[in-house]
Design goal:
CATH architecture of the largest domain: 3-Layer(aba) Sandwich
Number of helices: 8
Oligomer: single chain
Family: Belongs to the GTP cyclohydrolase I type 2/NIF3 family.
Protein name: GTP cyclohydrolase 1 type 2 homolog
Subunit structure: Homohexamer.
Number of domains: 2
CATH topology of the largest domain: Udp-n-acetylmuramoylalanyl-d-glutamate--2,6- Diaminopimelate Ligase, Chain: A, domain 1
Strand order of the largest sheet: 7-8-10-11-12-9
CATH class of the largest domain: Alpha Beta
Helix content: 25-40%
Pfam families: DUF34_NIF3
Distance between the termini: 53 Å
Shape: elongated
Order of helices and strands: EHEEEHEHEHEEHEEEHEHHE
CATH superfamily of the largest domain: NIF3 (NGG1p interacting factor 3)-like
Keywords: Metal-binding
Length: about 250
Amino acid sequence: MQKKLRFKTQEIFEFLESITPFSYQESWDNSGLILGGFEQGFNKTYLALEVDRKVLESLEEDSLLITHHPLIFSPLKQLIEDSYPASLIKLALKKNIQLLAIHTNFDKTHFGKYVVGNILGIKEYIQEDFIVFFDWERDFFALCQRLKSRMGIKHLKVTQSYNKNCKKVALVTGSGASFIRSLKGVDCFITGDIKYHDAMEALERGIHLIDCGHYELESYFGEILFPILTKKGYEAIITHSKNPFNFV
């Protein structure tokens, strides 16, 4: 006898499309339904930054897992049982768990302005695509302290340029170092995954850099989406992905 499931995948997909259109995603991205079917159903909705084994093992069967980062990102040429991501796909299939990702489209509609407005407490800001701009009235170290205290971060990786100002600030959640060259009139740039040569270029351009960490900037994914889905009537549950990095 076929199970009767409470919610339809097509319906929640269309709702997500209405708040963060999938057409907004970058050409290299893979947002959308990753595993499952639009005609399938599910009982519970889980939210996580990543698809990992601990998350999948904690989920009930016949569920939908919405993540920020897509499990399948690049084209797959083979599915070998003990390789990544095949091993996780196998576990999801076994438990009839569907996977749906809202990645770069969500960055553009929700992520950056939530971090700036709700977490950092900045009341006035402007968002342009991925980048959120705001003014800062204090110095560079006060901005670092605000980030550490509001985000619960013990250490920041920073690069201080020759520029004495820290008035115009830009923020990109996740990995945003590729935007350094396009920043005009910015004194300080906050993002994650900054590399050595990114820092050297920023120094030359007179831009201070603050690397909060990719995970740290995007760990609010479930916190943002939870009230939106529950208000719509979905039984949403936040399950926390683990940061793959530790400091020793």
